[in-house]
Write a structure and sequence with these properties.
Elements: E1 3-5, H1 25-43, H2 48-55, H3 62-70, H4 75-85, H5 95-107, H6 111-122, H7 134-143, H8 147-159, H9 166-178, H10 182-194, H11 201-213, H12 217-226, H13 238-250, H14 254-267, H15 276-284, H16 288-298, E2 308-310, H17 322-325, H18 337-343, H19 349-357, H20 364-373, H21 377-387, H22 397-409, H23 413-425, H24 432-444, H25 448-456, H26 458-462, H27 467-483, H28 487-499, H29 506-518, H30 522-534, H31 541-553, H32 557-569, H33 576-588, H34 592-601, H35 612-623
Antiparallel strand pairs: 1-2
Helix pairs in contact: 1-2, 1-3, 2-4, 3-5, 4-5, 5-6, 5-7, 7-8, 7-9, 8-9, 9-10, 9-11, 10-35, 11-12, 11-13, 12-13, 12-35, 13-14, 13-15, 15-16, 18-20, 20-21, 20-22, 21-22, 22-23, 22-24, 24-25, 24-27, 25-27, 27-28, 27-29, 29-30, 29-31, 31-32, 31-33, 33-34
Length: about 650
């Protein structure tokens, strides 16, 4: 008889499958992982008898089934697993398995069955199973390319007490883009903004992907370039980078790809295997130095073997199915860093010993995922130190970046300080974005002194930095010091910054003026406003709004009125709420003529003005398509048939 031999990331003895009265969390994880891999390999062999035999295993539970369904090779094989489960008397579906089934029905385009399942869950047919949320319903129907149902759910959501969120608009935009409805995608983005939603990084991912797929690579790159300089900072994501790298490699614009790879390094983002073929093409075109190390990191680790079958005994497989499963699959072992990290959250010696005996092959990607998955900085730190002593692995800039940001997020300055000497002694250079993130997190935990110490080590931690990177880091430091109410340090840092030839952005000045205004320090607010003008920057509407609000709330209304007149000289307008505050403050002090003047001069103002940044993005997006305005707005109609 055949026995499954799984010798990739983990090597397990058969007796690990013996039923035990007690298992530590890591042992349970490993047992489940092996059973999931058995099901995965059988689903690829189309052997129903062997599948039924494995599903009768006493360790089978909803966790195993849900993950086996999610990793099935096709919707058809996943549905065959569902059918076979009907013959297993001890198995009962729960929320996770039913939601996994819903995803399978969506991917296979079985809309009728999907709707029946969703309606059954939401009507209470299944005990202890929560309703399928509006968001999850939209995701399911989008996966099935059913725009009609997506819009139906969206309109139902709008009628409920909680209005749809940004992600709901993203789903509609993405599905419209996938189905060639260019106008509808652009219009949905416009409506999102009009209805007061703030686009997030996924919104821009949808836009960039839409532009790339429609052949508009330069507009896609233009929007990608805009993101870091927007007032509401938008983080550029791995997916955005991957879309653009693949696209520009595809048209042999390798200089653009080189720029993208350099910016990825600055942002501390490691490419995934998805772009391996693109980078290989770039390498073959002569860009050896730029790609060699990345290709090496992304290439499959030869130490990690595929799931294989051997000629040993295994009671889970019937003799009659031997020939059907005597195949070697190129199948990597199942792995869930979130669950394994959860199993190690208490970092008990028994569980750590089990982990060590499992003989995992630790890689940079694997370690990074594990560190990110720990919910506790203490457990992540224990794991980080433990894995450093495992054979065949050495920490690099990527894993150190992950742990240092994890520690900073939870305010563990003590652990970060222990790590800094190691970084220095081993000449490991962190990305600018990693150090920026640490400084930002110190602002959340009010560790301004620690942020200053990190900033003082910039040259050692990051090496030579461009003026653009220095601007970003100085801005983060000023923001953190402001949050920590370290006024003197803010002004000292600001002077140092300007003397070094780095001029703060308008947004940074706005934040500082707001914080000093909250503290009642009018003189510093005025000094900052003077510095803006001296630096050659032009104050914007947001800055004047902050200035006027500070003056009014500190009973310096005359200064507020003077700021209003100054604002007019820049041909700027503020919003209705700021105008209302200024008018009321002027009335309160008996300055009726000035109040009437403000009312008269600002009658055309509107709270719903689209920001300059969003106008620019919308303009690039809109102009990339030949659009006529004679089409219906999908968000205004409940059915495509109407």
């Amino acid at each position: 008889m055949l026995r499954f031999k799984i010798s990739p990331i983990i090597t397990l003895n058969a007796r690990n499958f013996a039923t035990k009265s007690y298992q530590n969390a890591v042992s349970l994880y490993l047992e489940r992982a092996r059973l999931i891999d058995k099901i995965r390999i059988i689903l690829r062999s189309n052997s129903q008898n062997s599948l039924a035999s494995i599903l009768n295993h006493p360790s089978l539970d909803t966790f195993v089934v849900a993950n086996a369904l999610n990793s099935a090779p096709s919707p058809h094989s996943a549905l065959s697993l569902i059918e076979t489960l009907k013959t297993i008397p001890h198995f009962t579906h729960n929320q996770n398995t039913l939601h996994a089934l819903a995803k399978i029905l969506a991917k296979s385009g079985q809309i009728g069955k999907l709707k029946a399942l969703v309606n059954g869950i939401n009507s209470g047919k299944f005990r202890n199973v929560a309703r399928v949320s509006f968001m999850d319903q939209m995701k399911l129907y989008a996966s099935a390319n059913d725009l009609e149902s997506v819009l139906s759910v969206w309109h139902e959501w709008k009628l409920s007490q909680k209005p749809p969120n940004v992600e709901s608009y993203n789903i509609i935009m993405s599905l419209c883009a996938q189905t060639g409805k260019d106008y509808e995608a652009v219009k949905t983005f416009s409506r999102m903004i009009d209805e007061g939603q703030i686009p997030n990084c996924r919104t821009y991912t949808v836009i960039i992907e839409h532009l790339v797929k429609s052949g508009n690579l330069n507009p896609a790159m233009e929007i990608f370039t805009i993101l870091p300089s927007m007032k509401v900072k938008v983080k550029r994501t791995l997916r955005q980078y991957m879309i653009l790298v693949e696209a520009f490699c595809g048209i042999n614009q390798f200089d653009v790809v080189k720029t993208l790879l350099d910016e990825m390094q600055v942002d501390g983002i490691l490419p995934t295997r998805r772009v391996l073929s693109s980078l290989q093409k770039m390498h073959d075109a002569g860009f050896v130095e730029e790609t060699l190390e990345l290709i090496k990191e992304m290439s499959p680790d030869e130490r990690i073997q595929n799931v294989t079958l051997s000629d040993d005994n295994d009671d889970d497989v019937d003799d009659e199915d031997v020939d059907k499963v005597k195949v070697k699959f190129k199948l990597r072992p199942w792995f869930d860093p979130r669950i394994l990290a959860s199993s190690l959250r208490f970092w008990r010696s028994e569980e750590v010993s089990t982990l060590e005996n499992a003989k995992f092959i630790w890689t940079t990607h694997l370690i990074s995922k594990m560190i990110r998955s720990f919910t506790s900085a203490d457990s992540a730190w224990e794991f980080f130190n433990w894995v450093a002593n495992q054979k065949g692995f050495t920490h690099d800039a990527h894993t150190i970046s992950k742990i240092i940001t994890k520690l900073a997020l939870e305010g563990r300055v003590d652990f970060v300080q222990q790590l800094i000497p190691k970084i220095k002694s081993e000449n490991i250079q962190l990305s600018c974005n990693t150090v920026k993130t640490v400084i930002d997190y110190y602002g959340i935990s009010h560790n301004g002194e620690a942020a200053l110490r990190i900033f003082q080590d910039l040259n050692t931690l990051c090496g030579n930095l461009s003026k653009k990177s220095l601007l970003s880091l100085y801005s983060s430091l000023l923001t953190t010091l402001g949050k920590c109410k370290m006024g003197c340090e803010v002004l000292d840092t600001l002077d140092e910054m300007i003397l070094s030839g780095v001029v703060p952005e308008i947004q940074t000045f706005c934040k500082l003026m707001h914080w000093f205004g909250v503290e009642g320090d009018v003189k510093t607010v005025q000094r900052l406003f003077w510095m803006v003008k001296q630096s050659g920057l032009q104050p914007d509407s947001d800055m004047f709004k902050i200035l006027i609000c500070v003056y009014c709330k500190l009973n310096r209304v005359a200064l507020g009125f003077r700021a209003f007149e100054d604002m007019k000289s820049y041909d700027l307008m503020f919003d209705v709420s700021t105008k209302s505050l200024l008018v009321k403050s002027l009335w309160k002090e008996g300055k009726l003529r000035e109040a009437a003047y403000v009312e008269e001069e600002s009658i055309e103002m509107n709270d719903d003005l689209m920001s300059v940044d969003l106008q620019r993005v919308y303009g690039v997006y809109y102009d990339s398509f030949s659009i006529t305005n004679d089409k219906k707005d999908l968000c205004e109609i409940e059915s495509l048939n109407t």
